[in-house]
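Notes continue from the previous slide.

Worked example: a multi-chain complex. Inputs as given:
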Amino acid sequence: MAVEAQEVAKPTPAKGVMRRSHSGLATTGLLAPPTLWLAIFFLVPVVLILLYSVNLFSLYPGGQYFTLDAWKDFLDGGPFLQLFWKSIWMSLAVSVIAVVAAYPIAYYLALVASKRKYVLLLLILAPFLVSYFLRLLAWKVILGDQGVINSFLYWTGLRAEDDPVTWLLYSKFAVVLTLIYVYVPFVALPIFASLESMDRRLLEAAADLGASRWQAFRKVTLPLSLPGVIAAFIFVFIPTIGEYFTPLLVGGVNGTMFGNAIADQFGQSLNWLNGSVLSFFLLLVVALLMGVFARYLTIRRVATG
Amino acid sequence: MSTEHDGETTKRTLGRGDFLKLGALTVGSGVLAACGAEGAPEPEPAAQGSTEKAEERPPIESEPGDLEVFEWAGYEFPTYGGKGGPLQPYVDAYGKPKYVFLTSDDQAIGKVRAGYRPDTVHPCVDYTGNWVEMGVVQPWDTSLISNFKDLEPALVKGGQVDGQQYFIPADWGFSSPLYRADKVEPDGEESWTLMYDDRYKGKISWWDSPLENFVIWGYVNGIDDPWEMTDDELDEGRDFLISKKHLCRNFWSSQTDMDADFAAGNIWIAYAWGGSYTGAKKAGLDVVYSDPKEGRLGWNCGFVLIKDTDNFRHAHEYVNTWVSAESALWNITNYAYGMANTNLDLAKIDPDLVAVFHLDDPAAREEPRAHYARPLTTERRAAYAQRWDEVKAA
């Protein structure tokens, strides 16, 4: 784009300068509202949470002084830090499985389905027309002790009726399963986009050079779609670390995640100081991960593009 | 209490004073605010919690009437009482209130503390002090509540702070283990230890509330005062609860969800209120509402009035309807909760409910057979809450 503009600018410099300053103004004008929005509704709250977490700010002021006690308690390896690691593991499991499950779908849509692909894409997104809450309730019906799966097991005689598979619902398993279910369509999209934009002639070239289909996939398709895969992974991993609603509904005693602890600190316990520590820690980790992923993504792009 | 808050109150009071002097009954709130901003020279004594008398209030017609009630699910019109039920007169006269649901007293306080302002809230009496302490409620004008005279004096007294009626008692009830008689066989005497029974691993549900699980443990273990435990006792309780939490299927936070789990057979034993008993009965389950040897827990909830509400009179009318004798009869019949309204004919109530909830036996509602929730300071509450969060996170 920049090169184009310069080329156009050469013959008529005056006009070009005008145009550039014009576009500069337009850029500022267009960027100002979202920047302001982010500053007011993102940066300021984040700073307030940080101040809250070191007891320098409070909605109900009284004895504000700088202290790192809450941070120390948290980082000392108490239950909340352990819960955080547990949440990381759970969302890692969700992300990896969701990406692996979504890849064939995206592959099929982008490279095999041809004309029908957009219709099929819409079908994949169709569940989003139903509220998430209802879909979770449906999972409860499927996974419960008298639910679809257990009833089927009773019917086939694989399980006795007074011995249901209880870990299906109100467990880590239930949380991971429902999260995968929710995120697969989200994950399929970026992978689909990267496969879609791939130059098909590369596959032809691979075939011409004697590569088998599997070799072509491994050496050409997969590396080219990696940015999409990583983007997809981030799409799941980042939001699920702080997941709150799903564990609340199907997590039971063991499926609790870090987001629930944060909600409890702010809601039930009224311990906003501690809650701020947990939230800010989560934000830090997520920002760090984003940084790492973003770097990896660019290098990849440079390497492949 | 913050100074900011006091300032806010004074400003609004001044605005109202001007408003009345001018006698301009139809002036909008924008003008009202402007009057306040001009700094009308009528400083009011900053008496804490002083009631603005009803006669200083604009008549009910000039209130917005969009009453917002922060309420327990199941207590809202038309679920509560049904169409044509005890809340119908209010709805006919003033329209259906807007309901926002609370799941526990702590959650409600958290939400209001974060800035949410309904017109009236339905907390439990042991939290009244915390509400007053927060500076977000004002005393009721009991002269506007015609049913007030029928309310049980002991409960009415419990709702007073510094001699002012900050809390109108409405409903009371028990908390006790509810269990499936066809699946569960208590080990010896009825006891709260059923909540920790290894034989029913994965079939138990505790209430997700910071206080009660420790209090129960306290009564089971003969702690001197389970409502005022020391940090050491709480630590011990926390460790015990962590060691037993694997027996639980979940910690329930919404009664509707718990009832559904109970009906679906996902849980067999739960910390429960009376409504879950009647609900399970209606669903055709064979259930027992336990009378544990350590005593049932008891609770008493009612209404507090948010400071600066625009619907002062509407809130009074609504609460008056809610605590009526008709409402009491409906509540006891359908949810098996007791009501503060004493104007009640027990003969009209299902004898099973009268027996299970000892409605004809006031002694069953007193120590040592029932332990009513007691007020805690914000500091003590925080100590319980912190450990409950640790139990949940562990």
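Summary box: Residues 13-53 of chain A form the longest helix (41 residues). Chain A touches chain B through 32 residues (CB under 8 Å).
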